[in-house]
Design goal:
Blueprint lengths: L1 H57 L3 H13 L1
Length: 75
């Protein structure tokens, strides 16, 4: 009987260690994924700002845009 208990105790300790290792791996994977999502979010923000600027440039009346270009040539 004692041998069975000791055997079971060892099995449970091994399962516990495996579970702890798996949790550490999952935490690391979660942190990596959070970093990826944060970078993607930043890229989305930059692209949205660039598109907004491009749309603003396209909405400038042509006469003002041409005048600005002529001013730049003079410089």
């Amino acid at each position: 009987m004692k041998t069975e208990l000791e055997t079971r105790l060892e099995e449970l300790k091994q399962e516990y260690e495996k579970g702890q290792q798996r949790l550490m791996n999952l935490d690391q994977e979660r942190n990596n994924l959070n970093n990826i999502v944060l970078r993607i979010s930043g890229a989305i923000h930059v692209l949205e700002e660039l598109l907004k600027e491009q749309q603003n440039e396209n909405s400038i009346p042509k006469s003002k845009h041409t005048k600005h270009a002529e001013t730049e040539k003079v410089k």
